[in-house]
Write a structure and sequence with these properties.
This protein has 13 helices and no strands. With 318 residues, it is mainly alpha-helical. The protein is globular, with a radius of gyration of 24 Å.
Length: 318
């Protein structure tokens, strides 16, 4: 009997030890998940993947063969420009910032500079494989991306020069235009110079869809920054017209895009996929499923750019 009791106690202790190890692992696992998510989002790898997805969607919707060099350029260029913009907007004391993303970026600033440099080299090397007009377009987009934050223009009422984002009413239009040029015009330009058949009304239509969608999901970011933008004198849509009207504008742009998609000449499966993605995006904006923190903006809202292509593929497989 004593032997049985001793065996039971040993067995129980071993099980307890195993349970504690599992419990510790379960506590640590979310920590690792969050670190991975922070790295994915705040290093701008995720938004770079979204740009690649938008480029791939262009090839899919225009029935063009995929040019993987162009997609690689889109990913690397987006990574470099977003990192550069974030580092350039360094606040006075980033380590005390209330924003998790700002603290993460400037804790890893040296690594971000390295990866930005590597991305720029990759863009240059890959860009040499493009046709000359496409390479020029790529250069124009690069200049536009840098000028967005670089203090190059004098804005009335400000002592220092500012980036183009500080010009009243320009920010949303500018962001939408850069995304359209990157994810639609660049793939189309390279395909055109490869002597591929281009249906131009579909190109202009897709440019409008991407513009409407990007501007619609950018407005909630401006709503988030309304007090900060007001403090720094940035004349964004929410600052000029208020949060409620900004949300109405965002919803209206998405509704216009959804209606246009639904009544287009594309097959039902494509129209359905794009419509579903826009409906989900509208729900995310009007009825946020999670707390409005960095993960809401940089994972959920930015992720709708990736979601469009994913839903397009899923519906195509059904």
């Amino acid at each position: 009997m004593p032997d049985n009791k001793l065996a039971f106690l040993v067995f129980r202790r071993a099980n307890l030890h195993t349970f504690c190890k599992k419990a510790n692992f379960l506590r640590v696992l979310p920590n690792y998940n969050r670190k991975f998510l922070d790295t994915l989002l705040f290093s701008n790898v995720f938004i770079a993947c979204c740009a690649v997805a938008q480029g791939a969607m262009t090839y899919h919707l225009l029935s063009l063969p995929v040019n993987y060099t162009v997609l690689a350029i889109l990913g690397c260029a987006t990574l470099a420009l977003y990192n550069f913009s974030m580092i350039l907007a360094r606040p006075p004391h980033p380590e005390t910032s209330p924003f998790r993303r700002v603290r993460w970026v400037f804790r890893h600033e040296r690594s971000l500079w390295v990866w930005t440099g590597i991305a720029l080299v990759a863009v240059w090397v890959l860009g040499l494989h493009l046709h000359k007009p496409s390479f020029v377009l790529l250069g124009v987009m690069g200049v536009m991306g840098v000028a967005y934050n670089l203090p190059i223009v004098h804005v009335s009422g400000r002592q220092r020069r500012a980036g183009l984002r500080q010009i009243t009413g320009l920010k949303l239009f500018y962001i939408g235009l850069v995304w359209v040029m990157s994810c639609v015009l660049l793939p189309v330009a390279e395909a055109y110079h490869d002597d591929l058949h281009i249906v131009w009304y579909q190109v202009w239509q897709l440019m409008a869809w991407v513009f409407l969608f990007v501007v619609a999901i950018t407005i909630p970011f401006d709503i988030r920054d309304i007090y900060q933008d007001r403090y720094y004198g940035l004349k964004t849509i929410p600052v000029l017209f208020g949060e409620r009207k900004a949300l109405v504008l965002s919803s209206t742009l998405l509704a216009v895009q959804m209606g246009w998609v639904w009544f287009s000449n594309y097959p039902l499966d494509i129209r359905l996929a794009l419509f579903i993605a826009s409906v989900l995006c509208l729900l995310f904006i009007l009825v946020p499923p999670i707390k409005k923190n960095e993960y809401y903006y940089f994972l959920l809202l930015d992720g709708t750019l990736l979601l469009q292509f994913v839903v397009l593929l899923l519906v195509g497989f059904v």
